[in-house]
Amino acid sequence: MNVLLFSNGKANPDQALLEYGSDWIAPAIKKTDAKRLLFIPYAMLRGEYDDRLKLLQKEFDRYGVSISGIHQHDDPVIAIEEADGYIVSGGNTWVLNKQLHDLGLVRPLRKAILSEDKLYIGWSAGTNIACPTIRTTNDMPIVSASILTALNLVPFQINPHYVDATISGHMGESRDERIEEFLIQNPYELVVGICEGTMLQVSGDTLTYHSSNGSPMKLFQSDKTPSLFNTEDDINHLMSVGC
After folding, report:
1. Cβ of 61: how many Cβ atoms within 10 Å?
2. 180 burial class (0-12, 13-18, 19+ CB within 10 angstroms)?
3. Catalytic residue among 139, 176, 211, 212
């Protein structure tokens, strides 16, 4: 596999989309020799698909890559088959996952990524759908979508935009408490929290963690104190969860 799973699209509002990940994206594109990427924008509900596509193309010009939008193709399955890799936008995970299932795109995407080693780059919702299910997304279920299973590229759950904080005056549950509730109901699963400006990468069979700002990754397990991992730490054991 060649998979890059970002927490977010921008490290700060002044940066271009995925600009902070250029040092990680460039070698992945070189390794896979990806020249034609397919942009999957279905998670977007605010803004125009073509506007975001233009922003991505402007940033990815530096890699010598051309990007088309899946919405521009008459047959999305053929578009997936003909592309060298995929960029999946953030937005609402429920909407994105429903569209992929409704259009019959889960199987061709899995085949391309798992069997043909095509490059996958996702952020936020695009990261959520790389998990076995979308149950640890932060997004509201704004569509009636009973399907929770996703692409299952990694065997653990991810919580993008992870924040280890409480808000003064806010009486609702913290992010840690929400994840704790998930693990009470699903004690045999793992949840990885990744903060803004960070990324998980699968290259071949190897899982690594990358951070543009020094923020650690946080691993949640049932009945255990959460563990912190830095970029130099070995986290490859997470790829054998459930094996």
Report:
1. 11
2. middle
3. 139
203 catalytically annotated: no
pTM: 0.95
Question: Is it the case that residue 243 has pLDDT exceeding 90?
Answer: no
DSSP result, 77-115 = HHHHHH-SEEEE--S-HHHHHHHHHHTT-HHHHHIIIII
- Known catalytic residue: 139? yes
Phi/psi of residue 128, nearest 5 degrees? -55, -40
pLDDT tens digits, one per residue of 60-107: 999 999 999 999 999 999 999 999 999 999 999 999 999 999 999 999
Does the annotation mark 161 as catalytic?
A: yes
pLDDT tens for each residue of 116-166: 999 999 999 999 999 999 999 999 999 987 789 999 999 999 999 999 877
Q: Which of 7, 84, 89, 124 is catalytic?
A: 124
Residue 24 Rama label (left phi>0; alpha psi -120 to 50; beta): alpha
From the candidates 161, 176, 211, 215, give the one annotated as an active-site residue. Answer: 161
